[in-house]
Amino acid sequence: MDNKEIIRLTALELSRKIEGGELTSRQVTDAFIERIEQVEPQVHAFIVTTFDEARKTADEIDKKRQDGEKLHPLAGVPIAIKDVVVTKGIQTTAGSKMLEGWIPPYDASLVVKIKEIGMPILGKTNMDEFAMGSSTEHSAYGKTCNPWDLDRIPGGSGGGSAAAVAAFEAPLAIGTDTGGSIRQPAAVTGTVGAKPTYGYVSRYGLVALSSSLDQAGPCSRTVIDSALLQDVIQGPDYHDSTSQLSSEVTAENSNYQAALEGLRIGSENDGLKGVKVGVVKQMQEGFAPEVFARFQEEIEALEEKGAEIIEVDCPHFEYALGAYYLIMPSEASSNLARFDGMRYGQRVDGASSDEMMANTRGAMFGEEVKRRILLGTYALSAGYYDAYYGSAQKVRTLIQKDFAEAFAKVDFIATPTAPTVAFKFGEKIDDPLAMYMNDIATIPANLAGIPGLSLPSGLAEEGLPAGIQILVPAKSDDKMYKFAAAIEAMTDKLPEPKGLEK
Ligand code: GLN
């Protein structure tokens, strides 16, 4: 098998071939490294690559396999990690100049899990600074290009992870999703991305953006690959009390088993008989015509497979974006206070410590980060707390109530993931509100803490990919994978991204 074929295999296929002795982890890792070297000048999905470490892990896994050790199915399958996740000994910048050159002394809990099973880490992927944005244009390390059209954005904030997966630079990647940063990049790059239930994956070692919303999750090219990866990273962690929500993954409750089952029912005629799918009354408008058409076709196909389509009323979704842009900046303004020129990263000196802090923050934070710190500080200030942060929290409760009422009637909710296909660089960068609108369909899930997954629904405007989003109640991640895999099984596979040479 040559390298061109190897990089096009899914993580599950790679895992089977490595387990079966048909490929070694070293061969697979080298194939992806060759691909990265070949396309990175065009895509720029990575801030740093860690090829030596990746090869070392691959060799160790191959040796263990030779010795007959029992290994995890994903052992030896390479992965890329968003640069907001701290990695011991490897520069972690969160896309900011503030952290340029910062080498963390520890691994995030999810990285510990990835290392424990022996997945070679290829590098750290590009992102909007401190995960604020929907296009990766806010990165201090240059833009990442969408493999479908190099003049277009790969989504954000996790555009690097999504682009790496779409460009066959990695079979799997880690993203983080505070308002849509896994799902929206997945939609516009024709890949799969999932935000687990809040608390399912430990936040220990994520550079914090908005602690009550942040959640790490998988990026891949197929639903079952994301399921496999979530099984690896989820589970209770001593370092993050919210992760206690999650239970240990077992063979019975694994997302992987659920996705397998989903693939089966998706290919059967009446496979979805009796399943109730909600479409949100408030999410019928504001989408590009072809993006919405692809969504409608999926809904019709679900009906043909026996699913019952039910309109659900979520009257407070209208306020979700407003509430998010109060809660998120408020928490971010507090979390980002730690970047003071003393504790981490860069420093710009001044005559006093106050001046040093002001100089450092002034020089090292980008425009969007400053905008949100201002917004958040204002929203939290004594006289305005109730009017802004307080009311946003009330809206959050109402959105949770909308979901609870909807899920009393339906098993799943489906929406288009992003309002449009990938837009051109520069199109929205000077218009923050237009940029914020990209997350209109993804934000409610973060506010409610429920899981959400985006998978390709087909090609829309300009022959570019669109995504469909699946939402389920909290702690039903396995059901989400099952249903998403069923949809994947009934949807035509996307062609390869057309922006790169073969
Ligand atoms: N685009 C959203 C924002 O800018 C989402 C970010 C995220 O999920 N990290 O806040």
How is this structure best described in words?
With 502 residues, the chain is α/β, with parallel strands linked by helices. The chain has a domain at 3-258: Amidase signature (AS) domain (Amidase signature (AS) enzymes), CATH 3.90.1300.10. 40% of the residues lie in helices and 12% in strands. It is built from 17 helices and eleven strands. It has an eleven-stranded mixed β-sheet. Strand 10 and strand 11 (464-471) form a beta hairpin. Helix 8 packs antiparallel against helix 17. It is globular and about 65 Å long. The chain starts with a helix and ends in a 12-residue tail after the last helix. The model has no long low-confidence stretch (mean pLDDT 97). The structure holds glutamine (GLN).
What letter string, H or E per element, gives the SSE order? HHHEHEHEHEHEEHHEHEHHHHEHHEEH
Question: For the record, what is the CATH homologous superfamily label of the domain at 3-258?
Answer: Amidase signature (AS) domain
Helix content: 40-55%
Shape: globular
> What is the rounded Rg?
21 Å
Please, what is the average pLDDT? 97
Tell me the number of strands: 11
